[in-house]
Amino acid sequence: MGEENGRSCTNANKGLNGSTRLICTTPEFGALAKQVCLKSHKQGATDPTERANLRAELDGLIAHLYGLT
User: Fold this and answer.
1) Looking at residues 27-49, what average pLDDT do you find?
2) According to DSSP H, which parts of 1-69 are helical?
3) Which of 1, 30, 45, 52 could form a disulfide with 9 if both were Cys (CB 3.0 to 4.6 A apart)?
4) Residue 37 DSSP symbol
5) Radius of gyration of the chain from Cα atoms?
6) Whole-model pTM?
């Protein structure tokens, strides 16, 4: 993570970054990608295995937030 586009991209944004990588996979989402700590839509996750891992990570974060773990 680190600093991108003048914004601090910390682990606190991990869930947001993961969901952004799942969403921002085409040029139409380029502006959103830049607003949420990605350099461009090209950092979006298009590989099926990577997408599955991101979804699993998000599921774990959400389960933790709701006290399910």
Assistant:
1) 91
2) 14-23, 30-35, 48-65
3) 1
4) T
5) 12
6) 0.73
